[in-house]
Specification:
This protein is of the alpha+beta class and about 280 residues long. The chain has helices at about 1-25, 35-40, 45-50, 50-60, 155-160, 190-195, 200-210, and strands at about 60-70, 75-85, 90-95, 110-115, 120-125, 135-140, 165-175, 180-190, 215-225, 230-240, 245-255. The radius of gyration is 18 Å and the shape is globular.
Amino acid sequence: MAGRRHRRMGGAFVAAGLVGCVCLGTGGCSGSPRAAADDARAGDPVEVLHRAADRLAEAGSSQARTSMEMATGGTRVTIRGEGVYDYRRQLGRLRVLLPHGPAGTGPQRPITELLAPGALFMKNRGAGVPADKWVRVDTATLSDGNLVTGGATDPFTAAEVLRGTRRAAYVGDTEFAGTQVRHYRGTADLVLAARSATAANRQALAAAAKGFATAVVPFDVYLDDVGRIRKVRHRFSFVNGRQKAPVAVASTTLLFDFGAPVRVRLPKAEDIYAGRIAEE
């Protein structure tokens, strides 16, 4: 019964409640650091990007900022998030701010999100959920694999999308937040990404490959001199159940302060809400 409830909650209320209502309302091999630096400066861009997630795992952790932009009905809305992420344990914590209402007024509602292998936990979700309770969603049951549902793309999942890179080109060197980076542009295939991903993300990416309007994901990514992602921007085509036309979603993830301490404590069973979720 609990499994069916979580599945229903994941497929219906989350996508409709976070992304849908916003639209309607408005592994590989790892080597030495020197070898990683050589990979980032030269070589086949496709192969370099296939290893980007491994470079994050080597870094251990970082702080992260996220933004998700959607355009619908002539209105553009943005959901922003900020937090920390542990790439080895694939655990993170984000504070996500939902956008203002259709009139652009009123307070922004902060949601605390905990990212874990196969699961998304949300607090202050609204929709009839008590403020002191968490909502748990199985990401493999989401039609987008939680690439857009939570209003923020899991940083390591964003990196693992690049394991599906089929075409990429080096655009040039530039500077990002005081760091010299190399800019690459290309497309990733979510089917290939799912096959190449770590076990924790395999099912979620496979779900996204089936659930998105297209499994081909255009991207721009900026790598530092050891091949770590400093910025990645994906463009997804998301099908919202309440609209016939796909919604264009641009998800941007910024990574910095590598090695930052990360403390994430997942909710206990008694702290997870198991009641009915109201539609917003």
